[in-house]
Amino acid sequence: MLEEYSLEHIYPDFDQIIEKSLEFSGNLMLFLPRNTSIEELIIRLLPFHDRLTHSSPERPKNNELLLEVEELMYGNYTKGLLVSTGKLAKVYANDVSNLFVSRYCYEMSSA
Q1: CB 27 within 8 A of CB 36
Q2: If you compute the radius of gyration of the chain from its CA atoms, what whole number of angstroms results?
Q3: Shortest CA distance to 69 belongs to which of 95, 38, 44?
Q4: Tens-digit pLDDT profile for residues 50-76
C-alpha cells in the first residue's frame, strides 16, 4: 500500500474528471482513498477555483476555495475521504483550521 496516494494514479485523469463534472455543477463530492495527499488535492483543484466557488445569501463570494474533507470511518478504521466543494462544503476554512489546531497542535505541545 502507498504511504500517500497521489491523484496521478486515478484513471481517467483526475483533471478530466473534474473538468467534466464541472459541466454539470460546481457542487462536487469526491470519494478518494484514505491516504490521498490533501496538499496535492488542493493544488490540483486550484485551477478550477472560479467554477468551484459559489455565492449565496448565507455564503457571499469571497474568492475562497471551500472544501470539506471528511474521514469516512468504519469502527476505528478510515475507509476513505469524502471531499465536498461548492455549496456542499458546509464549513468555513477557519472552522477547519481551528479544529485542526485544537485537535493536533495543543495535544502535541502538552506531550
Answers
A1: no
A2: 15
A3: 38
A4: 888 754 455 555 667 778 898 988 889
- Three-state SS string over 21-83 comes to HCCCCCCCEEEECCCECHHHHHHHHHHHHHHHCCCCCCCCCCCCCCEEEEEEEECCEEEEEEE
Torsions phi, psi of 107, nearest 5?
-65, -40
CA 102 to chain centre: 19
In angstroms, the CA 84 to CA 89 distance is 5
Domain regions of the chain by residue span: 7-109
pTM: 0.68
